[in-house]
Amino acid sequence: xxxxxxxxxxxxxxxxxxxxxxxxxxxxxxxxxxxxxxxxxxxxxxxxxxxxxxxxxxxxxxxxxxxxxxxxxxxxxxxxxxxxxxxxxxxxxxxxxxxxxxxxxxxxxxxxxxxxxxxxxxxxxxxxxxxxxxxxxxxxxxxx
Length: 144
Prior knowledge:
Largest sheet: 4 strands, antiparallel
Strand order of the largest sheet: 4-3-6-7
CATH class: Mainly Beta
Structural class: alpha+beta
Helix content: 10-25%
């Protein structure tokens, strides 16, 4: 079974967007994507609360580029919803970002009023902790 010729461009695009990584891939906001959190469709604080992010993980912002964007900002600018001097700006509508360092990564929408309405996310990257291993069984006591 081979690939159809139309699959090759898709595979090449995926390879470019998602470099080899041992990390997990997260779609910010899950099926809601990166959007205004109106009507309770998405709560980005709640979305991050049940996830553990590690170095090498990839977060994807999926949004309508004509009405939203993504700005990585400093902690102070995140707190104040200030997008005027971002660290990095994204505007493609489908931005894959590899988390390369430990600590907090702060993102918000730079469109006026969107951050104030809750379109911001704090991604905390923690050290990887391997799952605990089972303790070895005690050696049997030999009889005399």
